[in-house]
Amino acid sequence: MSINAQDYHLAELMLEHTSVGMAIYDAHDMRLLQANTLFLSFFRNYFAALGQEEHKNIIGHTFCDWLTSAQKREMMGIFHTVVETGTPYHGNDFSLPDAHGEPTYWHWSLNPVRDEHGQTGFLVLTVSEVTEQVLARQQAEQAQSALSQTKSLLEAERDRLEVIETVARSVREALSPERISGVAVDAIAEHFHAESVCLHIADPNHRALRLLRSRMQTRRQEAPGTIHYIPYEHMLPGSNAGEPRDPIVVEDIQNAAIVGTIRKEHPLVLGGTRGFICVPLWFRDHFEGTLSATFTTVVHKQGPEVRTLTGCATHLAAALAHARLLTAVESERTRLRDILDQLPEGILIAEISNGTISYANPAAAGILGIPLEELSAFPLHRYSWSQIYRETALDGQPIPPWNFIVIRALCGETIRSKETLVVKPCGSKLVTLASSAPLYSESGIMTGAVIVFQDVTAQKSLEQHKNEFFSIANHELRTPITIIQGFAEILQLAAQNRQLDSLTQYALASISEQSQQLTRLIEEMLDISRLEQAQFTLKRAEHDLVSLVKHVIESHSITTRQHHLHFVLEGLQSADSLISNIDEKRIVQVLNNLINNAIKYSPTGGRIEVGLRYKPDKPDTATIWVKDEGIGIAPAEMPHIFKRFHRARDLDRSMSGFGIGLYLVKEVIGRHGGHIRVDSIEGQGSTFYVTLPLNTQ
């Protein structure tokens, strides 16, 4: 074998065992001149994939024999370009299934071969399998894509947490819903590139949403007018949402318009909006408003945008609820102050921390004679109450100053209807009726005191004049009544020796009886005057209650012919005695009053029971009762029968008195250290019980 032949053999051997498929084409007619085994194997697989088994021998043929028209034009263009320019061509990687149907990837190139004259006579086409490289590149691209996706998710999560933390921090640092809403809207818009972000507050009275804060992109500055006022029914585009609990998400508004779930004429559709999110803001069971956002891209129900708005919703709902409650409290406080400012009674609130006045209404300023603006932060100790305390009221009793009542309240004492004295800066004095009480916080700590007082100087003066009138009138009436009663008794004595007609006898008896009744009435009115002027005194001495009650009954039995009086003893014998330190005249007055009432309100022939009870297990007290079978007392009148000047409304005016008898009875018994009560059934009668203390030495 010659050297040339040996070189040719070695070159052929090298081409057969290389990992690259190689073929030589004629540069002029594009015929395949020669190819190594790998190239021929590649084309067999290629034809098998195309279902063209008939192309088994391709040497001596051009590619035009098996390619489609489009493929021919493309390949001819490539071949001619390489021949004309002499520039190698590298094609794109392509896939080809192997015998098992698994994809393999190949790379091909076309290189010119020039002769000694620089002319391209041949073209070398190479194909090499790059499956491992392509798969590695695909895996790298997938890893890069996964990494990018993870990075995007992390960035979205970071943005979500940053927005929520920004909103939460603004809620902690500020109370203004306008400022909080501004922070939230700006943070959402900047981190998620929202087309628009809006925060609405709920108006339950009109069942509508009112815009609190919004932020729009430049192209959306012309926001629809409906954004400022949205009825609940139009909260979700194209449907009636009412007051939803869950977030409302429209992933793609444009697609929703195509399928018909949203009107195509809706402003969001016309504006090109894609994503829409609306998160209702609920605080417990109260609907506070909505947080909504629109996007130029599609959103997803589990996406970061939805989760961000949902995370912010809790903080915003709490902030709106807090602002709503503060507004309600402030409104109620203002309303309460307006009411207090209009009251005719003076009202002051003092603080225990510094002893100053924190609130005063105009009436208080008028009563105290101090300008309203000066009363604020007015220290109580500046009022010289030590000297004022020596002042006395119109009845001679000492009256404490008004600020002394407040100081007692600041010490925890509650005072009701106490007369106090006010000395104005001008020197004039007023008597006020004051009540004060301490104020406590929810934790039970005393924070201050409130005093309510009204000027009763005119009433006290009028009452004093009334008492003086009663005293003068009683004394002036007593003399003529005494004269009338004396002449009546003289006439009755003279009539005993003469025969007078019945009318004259009745007239004399009536004059004597009515003059005695008028004398008792005058005495009772004097007693009331003495009580009001603190001049009512008791002349106590030890007396036997058994003998006293028995004597009163005997006196009434002589003068009372139309009723039956019965004396009943319980726990006692008629010979026993019960000693009590009493004013005999006043106790007789009490018994006479009760028995006279029983006679007045009982029918003719009725039974009146007067009893005295003593129980060994209660040796310190004795009980006297007067029981009748009269008209009884209505339940509505029971709480008032011992009040001064009270008269039953449903009684005949000819039967009812002046309403002072039972009042005096209660006062007399109370000053003896006893008490009185009544049991009554309307239409069946009444029983009055008087309990008096006994001497137990």
UniProtKB/TrEMBL annotation:
The protein's name: histidine kinase
Domain Histidine kinase: 472-696
Every PAS domain range: 332-375
SUPFAM superfamilies in the record: ATPase domain of HSP90 chaperone/DNA topoisomerase II/histidine kinase (SSF55874), GAF domain-like (SSF55781), Homodimeric domain of signal transducing histidine kinase (SSF47384), PYP-like sensor domain (PAS domain) (SSF55785)
Domain annotation PAC: ranges: 90-142, 416-468
Pfam families, alphabetized: HATPase_c, HisKA, PAS, PAS_4
Cellular localization per UniProt: Membrane
PANTHER family named in the record: SENSOR HISTIDINE KINASE GLRK, TWO-COMPONENT HISTIDINE KINASE
Membrane topology, record value: Multi-pass membrane protein
